[in-house]
Amino acid sequence: MDIKKVVIVGGGTAGWLAANHLGKELLKREGVSVTLIESPDIPPIGVGEGTVPDIRQTLLNFGISETDFIRECDATFKQSIKFVNWMDKNTYGDGNFYHHLFDVPNSSHAKILTEHWLNQKNTDKHYAHNLSSQHLICEHGLAPKDITTPEYQADLAYAYHLNAGKFAQLLAKNAKEKYQVEHILANVKAVKCDNNGFISNLITDVHGELAFDFYIDCSGFDSILLSKTLNIPFISVADSLLVDSALVVQVPTQPEDNIPPYTIATAHQAGWIWDIALSSRRGVGFVYSSKHITDEKAKLKFDKYLGEKCQDLSYRKISMKVGFREKFWHKNCVALGLAQGFLEPLEATSILLTDFCAKFLTQRFPHNRSQIEYLEQRFNHSMQYAWQRVVDFIKLHYCISDRTDSSFWIENKESHTIPQTLKDRLTLWKDFVPVKDDFFSQFEVFYLENFLFVLYGMGYSTDVIGERKATDSDMAEYFERKEKIDEFLKNKLPKHRDLLEKIKKFGLQNI
Questions:
Q1: Main-chain dihedrals φ then ψ at residue 83, nearest 5 degrees
Q2: Where does the chain bind FAD (predicted)?
Q3: 338 among annotated binding-site residues
């Protein structure tokens, strides 16, 4: 049986990312159509407003103008995640921080610089400052490029903060106009399967019964196809990632307010707070473990963080069931986005994993049912690995922290909460600086440089006796060059808000 009619159930960022990826690829196949069915009654969750640099290539592949994207999605530039108070305040002071930067040196260079930094026991420089000029640029509130730099190009690597609702609208417009994706507004009331367990029909409230050959489940936490119809179990990772709740709010900003070119992630006694600045508002979320703090105390702490000016704002509570499906592809159904699973948005993993999985799906999308079995196995094996490695990376931030000021931080360091794969890597990295070969799969999602910034930003101890290969003169020459680059970029690059205003007024150059 040939696969000719593909349907995506659910809109939002996940649904419309899938529609663009699949629409672009399947448009090349004769007689194949893509339809997206979206409920007019269910608003998108809209939590994930941070991205990683890969999103630039995705937007470019979709043929979306960066100027249009920035204008229509209230987008701002993101060059880093600034982690505040993730270390002991008594040792490092209140307001201690490190940057997980996006601009990185090559892997061999990173090893030499890391070994040098570890040997400088008394340095007052941040680890990230040694590796990249972007640390300085972030701390000065500068943009990664100027108005003369063409779209999607830059002096420094970057991603975006964005309005998730407006982003979904932009993606929808692109998918419908460029890739002929049909858009149906309707609620799916029931799902039918055939005698072999394949989904055969959707029963909708507006269009009655609709039949398709292949189904993409982007229905969010409900997962009405993969979970409720095909009964694929959920694997909880709550024993490793302890947070389970979030209070979220949108904070209006003034035209003169500073727009940090990075996400701020501030740790507290039972979790952390995200703070993302768009061009006209901030998206702020208080993430916490209900086991370690009550909802009432969480609200009081959130009030204190936001300040008196925000007292009249109302919070929305989100319960977070952290984990993922046992399988992401079963028979003629694949889940993407929140229908796959959910992890706390510490490293902008929501849009990242959706984009990553949708790309992988389109690379080997079945032509007929006979291909499904082996493609299903391949997809599930690869995506399970990816999700597990993301769990490891998020857990890393907690388990190597030296905070012991609450039961939350103490429990996060207990051995039974740390995945064995992460334990094995941390044991290795006690004696050896991480290298590229430690990350042997294309499905790692987070790689060498990501781990370096977190490990040594948080002061992880690696014994590098006998490992140092660079001479003092080599290092002196490197830092002299770097200081010149720092000064050049500091003088060249505009303030973040200034660039955004120029883009809205004049636009960026097309590539």
A1: -95, 115
A2: 11-14, 188, 338, 351
A3: yes
